[in-house]
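Data availability (excerpt). The following record was deposited with the supplementary files.
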Amino acid sequence: MEVSPIVNYSSASNDTMSVKDGQAQVTRRADSAQALVIFEYQGEKYKLFSDESTNNLEFLNNPSYNE
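Predicted structure:
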């Protein structure tokens, strides 16, 4: 069995930009996350996806969604 996160960065509205030594740097912030579970049952592989969540994304560098 395998469990993996899927992180969505589709919206740029919560990303931040800074300038360091004259170079622009963009910090991407996660918009949502979901879990992917892959498992095998009776020789067949299955994939399950959780619902997307926008809560508690602080560990993905987005404290603004940590509500």
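Summary of structural features: The chain has a mean pLDDT of 85.
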